[in-house]
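Q: What does the assembled structure look like for these inputs?
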Amino acid sequence: MLNIPKRKTEKKRLNVLQKKPEKLIDKDDMRLDGRKLNELRPTKIEVGVLGNADGSAYIEQGKNKILAAVYGPKEVHPRHLARPDRAVLRCRYHMAPFSVDERKSPAPSRREVELSKVIREALEPSIFVEYYPRTSIDIFIEVLQADGGTRCAGITTASLALADAGIPMRDLVAACASGKVDGHLVLDLMDVEDKAGEADVPLALMPNLNAVTLLQMDGSLTIEEFEKAVNLALDGCKQLYTLQKEALKSKYVAVKEALDE
Amino acid sequence: MTPPPIVVRVKQKRIAELVSSGKRLDGRGLTAYREIQVEVGVIERAEGSARVRLGKTEVMAGIKIETGQPFPDVPNQGVLTVNAELVPLASPTFEPGPPNENAVELARIVDRGIRESKAIELEKLCVEPGKKVFIVFIDVYVLNHDGNLIDASAMAALAALLNTKMFNYELEGGEIKIKPGYTPLPIRNHPIAVTFAKINDKLIVDPWLEEEQVMDARLTMTLDKDGKICAIQKGGYGYFTTQQILEAAKIAREKTEELRKVLVKG
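A:
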């Protein structure tokens, strides 16, 4: 499976191409969408949004719209994958064909294969897998609309879906990227900033344990800049963590109120 | 990931205890690499090639260059493609078939280091803007798996790139006509990867197979020739603290300088 370069298609996209703007950050340190350098995008999280799943959650972070569902712990198919001492965690990160400007083939790309792996490894440290031997816990992340930072938003959402499924966890995992854009370190990059920026540092954190469970980087940063970028991302994770807890509580408060009536 | 074999499970405690006291089963220091051997130009049919031995780990990288169409968003740049094969002869745990997630991840880590450090001067690989460019295929071929495939593969890819020669050509009515002689592939940066394993809350460099099988988590940092970080990848089921990450960055800077002397001559 080689990465054959994409051939130019004759089809013209109907929606307007987003041209790279001259400047991503203006002289008042304001970003294209009006955010400050260290500001998260407006984020809305909802827990328990799907009927069939054991646990589910939905996030809107800027223009990102992502659904996550958890099934399990359940019997493993195929059986030989089962482990005698713990649950196996499986994860699929997938982007809908209509989630990006140019239609994405629904077949899993190499990027999606890699992200499924790193997301699984970001969530696994938070789960007591040893409580459920011979079972599997399946996580499905569907990106319905993408605008940069989908792996992080996917992790934030999937962690809530795991909690919603009632799976015992050490902590929630919150994830957020920082990066370097037009020479400035910024938090929570959107697509244009990611593409035109100098560096991108996605990071996932279990805030109560100071445990970084996902860390990637591409671009170019000095070690000093990297240290600052990590601290910025950690701060973003902590903000998202608060939102996660609120979302989780509000579902069960609503359930309790419904029961009380 | 395959579960640790039972023998390693038995050794797990011993490996972890040793690491805690600053030692390793094979006698290395915590931040010492195994012996590195680099041979270049090992495949005459390839435009560039290298074989790297990192202890008993053995990786070959071959470079092939073809012409093709550029990506529409960068019409005047050549194309870089990295693929990795975990060849079944390299380990009893490797199976035939299309690349699995480990192979895909390996290829993408190597790719990211080379791409983000802008190691290849891709803008010099344009034949006709928007129509025809050169595509550089880097194929990483793992021949013997004894741990730390990432660093060995990144070294093999870089050594092979530095050894790559392109044919001379001239354009005749939009067609490429090959002329005698070769020129080296234009390379401007040298990304080098350093991989850490976390065992018992300690960081070790260049984990070999048994250490990989008992490690909690893995962290790879790729640095360019100016000591800037150009790619990072965390792997494995465990986690790192912030302090460990920053400590790793400092060690990585020292180690990449050391490795660069072995890989980049002159």
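Strands of chain A lie at 43-47, 55-61, 64-75, 88-95, 135-145, 174-181, 184-187, 199-206, 211-221.
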